[in-house]
Amino acid sequence: MTKFTSILAAATVLAMAASCSTQKIAVTAHRGYWKCEEAKHAENSIASLKTAQEQGLWGSEFDVHMTNDCVLLVHHDPDIDGVRIWDANYSDFAGSRLKNGEKVPTLDEYLTQGEKSDKTVLVMELKKQGDKAHEDYMTDQAVEALKRHNLYSPDRVIFISFSLNICKRLAGLCPGFTVQYLEQDMSPDELYPLGINGVDYQFKVFEKHPDWIKQARNHGMSVNSWTVNKEEDIQKMINIGVDCITTNEPLLVRKMLGRKEKVVK
């Protein structure tokens, strides 16, 4: 390496460090802010969304599935009480309850709470379904639900999914919205031509593929990481300058970010 290239490389590193030092990083509560008394430790509950809003967190993430009779439910796992959601009707879950006693919320019920804050961004994860037709229908219905609740705005919601099909459909249906891929099997260079404008990868992926950060930045894509709960891992994500950290420990991330937290406007 010549003296000139050494100086140039050092200058590049310093420029990247300076950029990261001034960048604000958003905090998203994973499945809502559920790890607290207010929500009584119930993930994806309406109470967990309400608590995230009350804490003034930038984002609150939640998961959406669809029943056999096409009712959209907010729930992480593909089954409830051992029953596969897409194989059952909504009525089959009438007696199911979350840890805090809430019934499993429909998407409409969840978005009714979402309407009550014009600050906390809703990070909507649309879960993989049994086939493309069901994924397409669920995606279309989720977008319609956002419109019914006056939440159809890039400032109010971003989309994430492990399904490439869902991400591509959202990119077409919702121009101007942030659509982030979760599966971790494709680079930003591969995703960008498909219209997908963000990646939301498990934090270890960025250690394995450090060049993916640069790829994403070159395309103007957003870079988020999940689910980051330990101090050492949180600090790594702060150091590399991701746009958002999704976590079960939002107040810890807030404390570690200090003035670098992207505050709710």
Describe the secondary-structure layout.
Blueprint: H1 3-22, E1 26-29, H2 46-54, E2 59-66, E3 72-74, E4 79-80, E5 83-84, H3 107-114, E6 121-126, H4 132-148, E7 157-161, H5 164-173, E8 179-181, H6 188-191, E9 198-202, H7 203-208, H8 211-218, E10 222-226, H9 231-240, E11 244-247, H10 250-257
Parallel strand pairs: 1-2, 1-11, 2-6, 6-7, 7-8, 8-9, 9-10, 10-11
Antiparallel strand pairs: 2-3, 4-5
Helix pairs in contact: 4-5, 9-10
Question: Could you walk me through the main structural features you see in this protein, from its secondary elements to its overall organization?
Answer:
The structure is a single chain. With 265 residues, the chain is of the alpha/beta class. It contains 10 helices and 11 strands. The strands form 2 sheets. It has an 8-stranded parallel beta barrel with strand order 1-2-6-7-8-9-10-11, surrounded by 5 helices. It has a two-stranded antiparallel ribbon with strand order 4-5. Helix 4 (132-148) links the parallel strand 6 (121-126) and strand 7 (157-161). The N and C termini lie far apart (47 Å).
Q: What is the β-strand count?
A: 11
If you compute it from the alpha carbons, what radius of gyration comes out, rounded to the nearest whole angstrom?
19 Å
Q: Give the amount of beta strand, in percent.
A: 15-25%
Largest sheet: 8 strands, parallel, barrel
In round numbers, the mean pLDDT is 93
What characteristic shape results from the CA principal axes? globular
**How large is the count of helical segments?**
10
Helix content: 25-40%
> Could you give the distance between the termini?
47 Å
Determine the structural class based on helices, strands and strand pairing: alpha/beta
Topology as a string of helices (H) and strands (E): HEHEEEEHEHEHEHEHHEHEH
Q: What's the arrangement of strands in the largest beta sheet?
A: 1-2-6-7-8-9-10-11
Q: Uncertain runs with pLDDT below 50, 5 residues or more?
A: 1-19
